[in-house]
Every structure is written in C-alpha cells, then in structure tokens.
Write a structure and sequence with these properties.
18% of the residues lie in helices and 36% in strands. The chain has 83 residues and is of the alpha+beta class. It has one domain: Rossmann fold, CATH 3.40.50.300. The chain has a four-stranded antiparallel sheet with strand order 2-1-3-4, with helices on one face. The chain starts with a strand and ends with a helix. The structure holds adenosine-5'-triphosphate and magnesium ion. Magnesium ion binds at residues 46-47.
C-alpha cells in the first residue's frame, strides 16, 4: 500500500473566464504517507491548484484522481465523500 498513489494529477490546465491561464500542464503524484509542501510565489497558482483538487473551481482540462475516484467527473454525492 505504501507505494500506491492516493492523488494523481495529469495535464491539468486552468484558464479563468477572463482568459488568464493560471495552471499549465500540471502533473503530480502523491503517494500514501508522503508529506507534501506546495511552494510558489504569490500568484503562481497554489490556491488555484488546491481549489481544482477539491473542485471549488472547475479545471479547464486534465485528470484528477483521488483514491481511485475520478474527481473531475464526480457527481455531487461522490464529490462530497471525496472532500
Ligand atoms: N477568478 C480569477 N479570475 C482570473 N484570474 C484569477 C482568478 N483567481 C486567480 N487568478 C489569477 O491566477 C493566478 C494564480 O492565483 P492563485 O490565487 O492561485 O495564486 P496563489 O499561488 O495562491 O497566490 P498567493 O500566494 O498570493 O495566495 C494569479 O495570477 C491570479 O491573479
Ligand atoms: Mg493562495
């Protein structure tokens, strides 16, 4: 179990409605038990990434998988349990 990814993100883009591209081709894998720090300058997209993962904002493109659930296509009920 230790080496299994619990969170996988592939080719994630976020373009805000005003046309600003906040995330471009984000790829990451977080494994069970890993301790992760998300570092970046103000405006680099940290909050945008976290809000895409919990779907507080809709990703423009890409795949987010959490514990074998497809977050990007999750309905309300599944999303609630994922969160
Ligand atoms: N609703 C929005 N519409 C357009 N652009 C946005 C929107 N929200 C954020 N942005 C822009 O997207 C970029 C990333 O913003 P974000 O808030 O994700 O950065 P951050 O890394 O969390 O910054 P901070 O360290 O200041 O919290 C910034 O350039 C920001 O201005
Ligand atoms: Mg932020």
């Amino acid at each position: 179990m230790q080496n299994k990814a619990i969170l996988t993100i592939k080719n994630l883009d976020k373009i805000y409605p005003n046309g600003f591209q906040a995330l471009y081709d984000i790829n990451l894998e977080i494994k069970h038990g890993e301790f992760i720090v998300l570092l970046g300058l103000s405006g680099s997209g940290k909050s945008t990434l976290l809000r895409c993962i919990n779907r507080l904002i809709e990703p423009t493109k890409g795949m987010i998988n959490f514990k074998d659930n497809d977050v990007t296509s999750a309905d309300k009920r599944l999303l609630k349990s994922i969160r």
